[in-house]
Design a protein that fits this description.
The chain is of the alpha+beta class. Helix content is 18%, strand content 26%. The chain is globular.
Length: 65
Amino acid sequence: MYIIARNDNGKTEYLKDSSSTSNKTFDDFSAAENFAKKLNTHTQANKKWYVLELEDKQEDEATPK
């Protein structure tokens, strides 16, 4: 599984699911990458979104590698 993140003023921010407070997850890299590219068309150059692979499959306990 994959999530989308960005760095803003030294802090890592994770993209949230619009219907909850949990991180938005993707099953495959290409879907996550395409979504990040769409987000980046409307994002400042110093706050670009990127894809991270998750260590474990459990969404509630998922942490980036």
